[in-house]
Amino acid sequence: MAEVVLDNVTKNFGADIGVEGISLTVPDGAFVVLLGPTGAGKTTTLRLISGLEKPDQGDITIGGRSVINDSPAARNVAMVFQQYSLYPHLSVRDNLAFPLRSPILNRSDDEIARQVGEVAEVLQISNKLENKATELSGGEMQRVSIGRALVREPEIFLMDEPLSSLDAKLRSDLRVELKRIQASLGATFLYVTHDQIEAMTMATHVGVLDSGRLVQFGTPREIYENPVSIYVASRLGQPRINTLPVSVFGNAPSGAVTIGLRPEHIQQGEGKESTVTRVEHLGDHTRLHVNLENHDVITLADVHTDLRPGDKVAIQPRSPLFFDANGVRIV
Amino acid sequence: MAQIVIKNLRKDFGEFTAVQASSFTIEDGEFFMLLGPSGCGKTTTLRMIAGLELPTSGEIFIDGEEVGQKPASKRDIAFVFQMFALYPHMNVRNNISYPLKSQGMTKARVTERVAEVARILGIEDILNRPVGGLSGGDRQRVALGRAIVREPKAFMMDEPLGALDAEFREHMSEELRALHDRMHATTVYVTHDQLEAMQMGDKIVVMNHGVVEQFGTPQDIYDKPATLFVADFIGSPSMNFLDFTGSIAGGTTEVELGGLKIAVPAQREQCHGDLVLGVRPEHVELADNGEYRGEILATEYLGTTQIVTLKTTNGDLKARIGSEQKATVGESVGLSFKSQTLTLFDRASGRAIRSELNEGVLANG
């Protein structure tokens, strides 16, 4: 495993920006998640590290050594894609062993058997080793494709939305599992997704991308609690942060144009009067939609609240965030 | 607009029974969700209400009239599909007005209706644009416009947001619900996404293997699940199930799990043998002391809350606690449950045992 460093890396596709001036350190043993919407540069970043793309500018080092001129094969990175591609005619065991049987590696059969056994153990698919790849469930297939990356013991794992084609329950199981695998191996993961839950729950560090630029890098908690801009603040948190003109509540620092209120940062009982428009009972929590001077605001209510549409509720901010005219945070 | 009553509805496809003996009522103006995993019969049920499939047996009443064996064209229902099919060679206005023109409505009236629908959907400025260049959201709005413009008795929607990405989906679901709150049109909506069902629905029917497992308001179904299937399907993470063997009588207020006594809502019926204690993650509390112990296996940060996975003698268990609370992987902690929220199930039948908590809901379920 190794530290991976991107130093001021730029890659354009004709007139389109792929990534622009990205500097990023993936520490050895870290689980770094790059978060951003479609087109933010997530996949391009992975392809640059794996060697599938060559940067126009900047340097990439793996374990302290520049790999810019290395072929993908020479970089010893492993990629896992959204669409798992297993060899359908082979058993799980042979699918896992396949990368190890490469003549370049020159591994003995015993050694291969040992490594496959270990990886199957970690992924909890030991009892499925003799199954054909086609006899597996979607979650098992994705585990095998992760396993095929694991057996190679690469310097870094590059994962491109590996869970997004799975159903919700399986995704939440595999989130916990991936994190466990990563921690138990001490492996270095760079993982891209547009799913904020994946970013928050698995990452040791989150990098937020906006139109090819890295706009913030930190722990999930730092990004959630101390976003540098409205853009970043809107990436994490469900329901999304409420943004209102500062004039609604007043009492803002100079230069502030927008006040950002996470649903849990709105206190009820005192302040400005708002009208309840909708109450959503989601089971473990209840969302309250209110209208405040023609602005829609979402906050939280007691799970079994009696509030109904049309009711009046006084609300006021509690530890709000402020942003200037460009959406940049004012601290 | 209309009330829809389903009575003992059944559909067989050859040997396979897609829907068996379903009964429920959709009140006038309700936003009604048919929820379940793929293959549970929810789409077949919707198609039978719309008249796209004829039931093998049972009855469907729309506004008191039995329409079970009538063709779709006689039911005055609008169907919105997952893949919004628009006429690609027509502009937005013509796409929306098409159903009215084919009914032979006068030109002046058509113009008036289209203008009104465009205003409701906020698409007045794109009426003269070709549909080819529209964004996904606008295409969805046009498809809705074509359904709304006919003023049908009810709307049927089959996973209309299924093809959209997460962020946009959330936006459109809010928009759809807001639209419903303005129009109060009876809407039947099929989804496999429990959060979408909870978020948008006034009432939910949960289906599994062609059977209605439960029918009620989102909060009732969440708090008082009628079966293990419902308890597991609704909520994320799902309810924790702790297996134990025991005996319950009417009036029981305590069960014994691994030698520890756990308080439960007063039970209203008897049950013996393999039982399950069901506890929602947010009803598990962590404490330094406490007899019932668990070892923290994993924590997942979610902003305001965190999910803690614990290893206990009864299997793994998930707790949802505040993110400001300290939880360290590897530590052993005491656990307690909010007793008045607990549900007991009979493992063999999967049925919830009636108690003080759920008897009101289960009686009419």
CATH topology-level fold name of the largest domain in chain A: Rossmann fold
> How many individual helices of chain B?
9
- End-to-end separation of chain A in angstroms reads 38 Å
Principal-axis shape of chain A = globular
SSE string of chain A, helix = H, strand = E? EEEHEEEHHHEHEHEEHHEEEEEEEE
Name the structural class of chain B: alpha+beta
Number of strands of chain A: 18
What does this entry look like structurally?
The complex is a heterodimer of chains A (331) and B (365). Chain A is of the alpha+beta class. Chain A has 2 domains: 4-230, 3-Layer(aba) Sandwich (Rossmann fold); 242-330, OB fold (Dihydrolipoamide Acetyltransferase, E2P), CATH 2.40.50. Helix content of chain A is 24%, strand content 33%. Chain A has helices at residues 42-50, 92-97, 109-123, 138-150, 168-185, 196-202, 220-225, 230-235, and strands at residues 4-13, 16-26, 31-35, 57-62, 65-66, 77-80, 156-160, 189-193, 205-210, 213-218, 242-245, 258-261, 266-281, 286-292, 295-301, 312-317, 321-323, 329-330. Chain A has a 6-stranded mixed sheet with strand order 6-7-8-3-9-10, sandwiched between helices. Chain A has a 4-stranded antiparallel sheet with strand order 2-1-4-5, covered by helices on one side. In chain A, strands 11-12-17-18 form a 4-stranded antiparallel sheet, with no helix packed on it. In chain A, helix 3 packs across helix 4. The model of chain A has no long low-confidence stretch (mean pLDDT 92). Chain B is α+β, with helices and mostly antiparallel strands. Chain B has 2 domains: 4-223, Rossmann fold, CATH 3.40.50; 237-364, OB fold (Dihydrolipoamide Acetyltransferase, E2P) (Beta Barrel). Chain B has helices spanning 42-50, 92-102, 107-121, 136-148, 166-183, 194-200, 218-223, 228-233, 359-364; strands at 4-13, 16-26, 31-35, 57-62, 65-66, 77-80, 154-158, 186-191, 203-208, 211-216, 240-248, 254-257, 260-263, 271-279, 284-287, 293-301, 305-312, 315-322, 332-337, 343-346. Chain B has a 6-stranded mixed sheet with strand order 6-7-8-3-9-10, with helices on both faces. In chain B, strand 17 and strand 18 (315-322) form a beta hairpin. The longest helix of chain B is centred in the middle third of the chain and has 18 residues, at 166-183. Chain B is globular. In chain B, 42% of the residues are buried. The interface between A and B is large, with 35 and 36 residues.
